[in-house]
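Hi R.,

Here's the chain you asked about this morning:
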Amino acid sequence: QVQLVESGGGSVQAGGSLRLSCVASGYTYNYYMGWFRQAPGKEREGVAVIMSSDNYLYYFDSVKGRFTISQDNAKKTLYLQMNSLKPEDTAMYYCAAAGYVGYPPRAGSFNSWGQGTQVTVSS
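And here is the predicted structure, written out as tokens:
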């Protein structure tokens, strides 16, 4: 079982930036790692997914060109650099891990989830 702990959330004004981190413990070799988010009253939606050893990289439309996902396998850490933030990016952000995902990736494929970190963007 993979344990995931997110950090880096906070409050920022529109146009600002934040960098989220997710530290994994347990066996994570060749796992697909992703970021998802959920705003109050809305369904969980995908942000980005990566598995560098498989050259797998996917961004959901709402964040393309603004967010960058990356991973440091030696540190077992997943990152999400968020630039040009908008109020609609306000949500709880979750890190997740999966042994396999399709293309495009689906939240249902991920079986390990962190507790989340809150991102709030004010206008």
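One quick note: The first strand starts at residue 3 and ends at 7.

Cheers,
M.
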